[in-house]
Amino acid sequence: xxPGLLAATRADGATWVIKGRGFGxxxxxxxxxxxxxxxxxxGYKGILRHYYRGTRIGKTRRTQMIRVLLEIDPGDVxxxxxxxxxxxxxxxxxxxRARHAGRRILxxxxxxRKLKGCGQMLRTDSxxxxxxxxxGAFRGALEVVRTESDxxxxxxxNALNVNNYVQGVVPGxxxxxxxxxxxxxxxxxxxxxxxxxxxxxxxxxxxxDTRSQVYGGLDIETARTNRAVRSTRNQVVRYRGQMAQTxxxxxxxxxxxxxxxxxxxxxxxxxxxxxxxxxxxxHTWTLRYSGAEMNLRLAAYVRGRLRRIRIVKRxxxxxxxxxxxxxxxxxxxxxxxxxxxxxxxYDRWMSFRLRR
Length: 356
Prior knowledge:
This protein is an alpha+beta fold. The chain is built from 8 helices and 24 strands.
């Protein structure tokens, strides 16, 4: 049989066994790999240089601001602990609201009485934290603007400096019990990623979830992760004088990938060995599907009934770049990431075996 080609005469009654490695997109730093390096005594700067080739650790010239979307609210945005908003002095112990009114945002008290018109943005001033609805406590300020995609809704945005932001990211992305050098690695990677990755939202730069980075604010901060952030204050990863876009993910399976499938070549995002990634429970994994399940999952891509899967191109890791689905009515090409998502696989580092 040609390598990479799986054959079956009656695939629907068979079992497909998918052997895989890794969890995530595979580009940049693997968090479990960083954990393993830290256990071996490697410092955070060396860990970062391993995953982002040709880079060095530098500092930002000034502490920059980050704006994070906390929610899109179809009604009022509730908040506490604000001392001022829209030029009006407030009682920090009381509850207030922001409300959409045409093209303006209104400041209301807890009972809904108008206190002031704020123009196109309501911004709070507080000392310490601001509590936003049921989302919890956050450092910095609350900013409320209209939602462009839904003019009747409001964007509730947390505006704060990047170091305070990272304090609310590190414990959301990495267990606080991990070695300090791993936490420092995560802090620098998260800070650099935040400063180089903008989603271009209405009034905000980043999401508070995995679309950007997991951000939980004050409620998830810990003493250890805050110490990791403070000890790396303003530090970022640089490549030839510019900040690198420090992508990271959970588990590499033993090797990272050279950039994103279909994306431009980025010299510091090269495939590297990841010798200590084996600490992850998803370093290797196995999925099993019946023939009927495979046909259901791949129905939008396969012609007829699935008979074979042929891997035609792999990346450097070697994650699947492209495959051919051989069906009872012909062949079709499929990207590796599309195949991964269709099969609900952890990664696109996969191989296939058909058991009849």
